């Protein structure tokens, strides 16, 4: 069996996603990428999380060829393939239709950064993509979803804004590992819930002050980060 550890991480992470509260039914999946060989493992389409096994994970290369697995990969596979091609440093991508983040996607508005909870994970507002054109929807829809995400993040560090809202669709979040990507997806949903409540209380609320945003993001993710413990601990 090729890439046993890759399939194992994809299995574990997809099972975690199924119990995370981020998904309804089977509306979500995780893929795990090995950049050294250009292969990723992805959840099979429509299979309930509780029925997953490492052997059911599907291995796909960056050309979209299924290398191993008897089941069809998630229909989102071309989107993942496009993101792994474009985003250096990203090893895992999570796609969900979590309720509050999806509310912003359906509204077609970015997720504003109102406070430090959001700033701990995202260096500013989480953007929303433009609508896909009729042609983009009709031809290679999932691949074009990846294209519009890449377009939206053009000129920005995908590890500083590790998520995007797709117009009328849902969210994609990513990270350096499956666990990290799920944490980011959870943080996105929490931030979206808080933003929704903030706008209900103060509809004209302005975004966080740049100095406070920078302070919180950098202390967790900057070169001189002080959050957490040294690796030796």
Q: Could you please describe the fold and organization of this structure?
A:
This protein is an alpha+beta fold and 233 residues long. The protein has one domain (4-221): Class II aldolase/adducin N-terminal domain (L-fuculose-1-phosphate Aldolase). It is built from eight helices and seven strands. The protein has helices spanning 4-18, 77-86, 99-107, 116-119, 134-138, 141-152, 178-201, 210-221; strands at 28-34, 39-42, 58-61, 66-68, 92-96, 163-166, 170-175. Strands 4-3-2-1-5-7-6 form a seven-stranded antiparallel beta sheet, sandwiched between helices. A hairpin with a 4-residue loop joins strand 1 (28-34) and strand 2 (39-42). The longest helix is centred in the last third of the chain and has 24 residues, at 178-201.
Low-confidence stretches: none
Structural class assignment: alpha+beta
Q: Biggest sheet, in brief?
A: 7 strands, antiparallel
Q: Kindly provide the name of the CATH class.
A: Alpha Beta
Count of β-strands: 7
Strand order of the largest sheet: 4-3-2-1-5-7-6
Residue share in helix: 25-40%
Query: In sequence order, what are the helices and strands, one letter per element?
Result: HEEEEHEHHHHEEHH
CATH homologous superfamily label: Class II aldolase/adducin N-terminal domain
| Average predicted local confidence, pLDDT | 92
Task: Give the count of structural domains.
Answer: 1
* CATH fold label: L-fuculose-1-phosphate Aldolase
* CA distance, first residue to last residue: 34 Å
Radius of gyration: 17 Å
